[in-house]
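User: Last request for today: this protein with protoporphyrin IX containing FE, please.
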Amino acid sequence: MRTVLIILSACTLYAVLRYNIAKDVDWSHLPLFIGNKALSLAALGTLLFTFCIRPLHQLGMASITPLLDERKIIGMTGYLLVFLHLIISFLIFNPAYYQKFYTDSGKLTGAAELSMLCGVLAFAFIWGYSRRFQTFLRGDAQIITWLTSNKTLFAAILLVGGHLVFMGYKGWLTPEKWPWYLPPISLVGFVFVLATLAVNVVSHRKIQVNLNYASNTKVNLPS
Ligand code: HEM
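Assistant: Here's the final one, the structure of the complex with protoporphyrin IX containing FE:
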């Protein structure tokens, strides 16, 4: 659990520094508005870290090996944090908090609708994938295999990426407007997504190369 506490503390410190201190958002909005920003980044960071533990171990990072046995609990805690992010987001989802998501008519902008759709689908895929950790799964084996496959995992990661891009891309392109030049949390989250995809692809490639080398070496062995 130390891992999750470190991620949660770092995300909370960053959210307070960027929004309450650098951007001067009133402290009365720390519990939910700023708290939700910290929580959403910690949820994302915890889940993505879970998906990097084994690839980093396979890439030879010895310091990560002790965490192999903790992946389940870290992953389920990340899932819980996402759930809390959802509840808080629904609690304060109105123009007073999120003017940037609304048009003058009071409806959501196209980008906000796409962002939230990606968020909802990402949550559904994360829910599906988290069934992987359930030992009493019953039902259609094919659906269970698909739900708990790496494909579902990658779909969830890409959908979270969409959730962040559609809500934050405008702010990402104006660094001169960032308070103390601290990047927006949605951009930090997106960098986490890219890093996770990179670690998994590199690790996967390395395994492929090793497998090819092993099979080639076997073929060439003198009888
Ligand atoms: C039903 C699904 C979801 C809803 C309704 C939702 C809602 C929101 C809202 C309203 C924001 C804007 C926060 C702000 O700008 O202060 C947001 C930001 C964010 N969400 Fe979600 N979200 C959902 C799913 C997810 C999932 C599955 C993840 C990750 C695993 C996630 C991670 C994030 C992150 C990292 C931010 C950026 C926070 C920021 O820019 O301050 N969200 N979400």
